[in-house]
Write a structure and sequence with these properties.
The chain has 137 residues and is α+β, with helices and mostly antiparallel strands. The two termini are 18 Å apart. It is built from three helices and eight strands. It has a single domain, classed as Regulatory factor, effector binding domain (Multidrug-efflux Transporter 1 Regulator Bmrr, Chain A, Alpha-Beta Barrel), CATH 3.20.80.10.
């Protein structure tokens, strides 16, 4: 595990999965239908327990131009700047459950932001994903 710092907030627009984990791929596919895949974008999987404990998963991408989410009729959220506990998962497509195991490890950290998200950061279509959770600041 390592600690990384987001120097600025990141505005994300997203598609919410109908269920977790079964609805994840459908949400990702819908996001790519709304906005064509581009290596200029960063993509995210964002999840946390909500509404009494069920995990809500959102497939999202950063807003590259102001108003893009509104134009595409998408909801938004903001990843707050600050320190995040993080773990990189390489070759995740060979073992998709490795992402869940990384978050199980990260969730044991004693100083997590109680309102933070579990964030999967997929940068430039590499075969690795950065799993991270914001720390209490």
């Amino acid at each position: 595990m390592e600690t990384i710092t987001l120097d600025k907030e990141i505005k994300i627009f997203y598609v919410t999965a109908e269920s977790f984990p079964d609805g994840i791929q459908k949400a990702i596919d819908e996001l790519h239908r709304i906005v064509s895949f581009s290596t200029n974008r960063k993509y995210y999987g964002i999840s946390r327990p909500e509404n009494g404990g069920a995990i809500v998963y959102r497939a999202g991408t950063e807003e590259l131009e102001k108003g893009e989410a509104i134009k595409l009729n998408c909801d938004t959220l903001v990843l707050k700047k600050g320190k995040y506990i993080s773990k990189t998962v390489n070759d995740f497509r060979k073992d998709i459950m490795s992402i869940g195991r990384a978050f199980e490890e990260l969730l044991k950290h004693p100083n997590l932001d109680p309102k933070g998200y579990c964030v999967e950061w997929y940068a430039n279509n590499k075969e690795s994903v950065q799993c991270m959770i914001r720390l209490n600041q």
